[in-house]
Amino acid sequence: MSDTLLIIEDNEQNLYMMRYLLERAGYRVESSGDGPGGIAAARRLHPAAILLDIQLPGMDGYAVAVALRADPELSGTPIVAVTSYAMTGDREKALEAGATGYIEKPIDPDSFVDQIKAFLPDARAERDSQ
Ligand code: MN
Q1: How far is the CA of 120 from the centre of ligand 1 (A)?
Q2: Which tens digits make up the pLDDT trace of 40-78?
Q3: What is the pLDDT of residues 73-101, one digit of tens each?
Q4: Which residues lie closer than 8 Å to 77 by C-beta, 6 or more apart?
Q5: Distance 128 CA to ligand 1 centre (A)
Q6: Which helix (DSSP H) or strand (DSSP E) does residue 33 occupy?
Q7: How remote is the CA of residue 52 from the centroid of ligand 1, in Å?
Q8: Taking CA 90 as the corner, what is the angle to CA 18 and CA 28, rounded to the nearest 5 degrees?
Q9: How far is the CA of 12 from the centre of ligand 1 (A)?
């Protein structure tokens, strides 16, 4: 399994912060600012996990999650929905659409990497055994 993480996020500041924290922790980070681009990147990269903003221009995060789950090669890839704290209904909808779990925005820089790692047990085990 790759140690590449894919972030699908249209907000430059959110993307910058998530990329910074994950790269500092040793992950490779790829990104897309919209759903169709993110789906294409996921098919190309087979990332260890996908961080998925819900509020995206055009195709929203729910539709992206459904499309990712419909691809047999991505059906087992962890999808972490990144939802706004205020939008409590987002979380249930994200899980119904196929997300593995969610984290809340604004992200907490002190715990963000650990929150993401929790979705990556297989990737961590494989890296540690190499
Ligand atoms: Mn957004």
Answers
A1: 23
A2: 999 999 999 999 999 999 999 999 999 999 999 999 999
A3: 999 999 999 988 666 788 899 999 999 99
A4: 42, 46, 47, 48, 49, 50, 68
A5: 34
A6: none
A7: 9
A8: 20
A9: 9
Amino acid at 130: Q
Expressed in angstroms and rounded, the spacing between residue 8 Cα and the centre of ligand 1 is 9
| CB-proximal residues (5 Å) to ion ligand 1 | 10-11, 53, 55
Q: How many CB atoms lie within 10 A of CB 18?
A: 26
The edge-to-edge listing of strands for the beta sheet with 79-84 is 28-32, 4-8, 49-53, 79-84, 101-105
Angle between helices 88-97 and 61-69 (to 10 degrees): 20
Residue 54: CB atoms within 10 A of its CB come to 23
